[in-house]
Amino acid sequence: MKFLAISSLIAAVAAVPVAEITERSTPEIIFPTSISQYNVGTGAVTYKTTIGRVFKHPTNHGQDYTTLGTYYFPPQYAGWNCEFLFDIGGYDSLYTGSRKVDLFLSQKPATATTTSWPQGNLRDQHVARMEIDAYTGRGKFIEGTGGKFKCPTGEYAGEIVGVYDEIDLYWRQDHAKGPYFIAYP
To answer: How far apart are CA 163 and CA 140, in angstroms?
Structure first.
């Protein structure tokens, strides 16, 4: 009798359809499809480099550098939550001066190396300000949205710009995470 009852229970449970899992439960990391260095003084772009650089100094006569990043958000991330992170910790990184950066959206991504205007940077809306921790190399939001927003879809571009008169941030994209996003379901 017990065997029959257990067999009936197993058969009943087995007959219940298993719900299909449609969402991932783990976050996805979105690294830039390219990073490029932008020379503020000349308008030149060094496209698709492995070196990120944000540089300003009062004696460099306008030869400041910013980093342009291009990202692709797949359509399946629509409706997900995204968060921007900036981590240049690890070796082959340098961070001196103010260690503060402003984050801007760009009107369109860099697509080629250029030597002058007008093909250079297309800086758009200011989004936030971050400070890079002197010990860990991780960015912390000090102004702006805090880095969390609904994920877009498609290709997006942005720029990391130094704050105040002196800053030197340098990282190798293959050794540090650099600027990236996390997408959460």
So the answer is: 14
Query: Could you tell me which residues are beta bridge partners of residue 30?
Result: 181
State how far the Cα of 141 lies from the Cα of 131, in Å rounded to an integer. 7
**Rounded (5°) CA angle 70-74-80:** 105
Cross-strand pairs, 34: 70
d(CA 48, CA 55): 18
Write out pLDDT tens, residues 70-116: 999 999 999 999 999 999 886 667 778 999 999 999 998 999 998 87
As given in the structure block, the two tokens for residue 68 are 């342009």
Rounded Cα gap, residues 131 and 107, in angstroms? 24
Please tell me the distance from the alpha carbon of residue 30 to that of residue 102, in angstroms, as a whole number: 20
The pTM for the full model equals 0.81
User: Do the beta carbons of residue 110 and residue 34 sit within 8 Å?
Assistant: yes
Which pLDDT tens digit goes with each residue over 45-55?
Answer: 999 999 999 99
**Cis ω for the linkage preceding 118 (within 30 of 0):** yes
Distance (Å) of CA 41 to CA 20, 72, 175: 55, 28, 28
Q: Which CATH class is domain 28-184?
A: mainly beta
Q: ∠39-148-159 over CA atoms, to 5°?
A: 5
d(CA 141, CA 122): 23
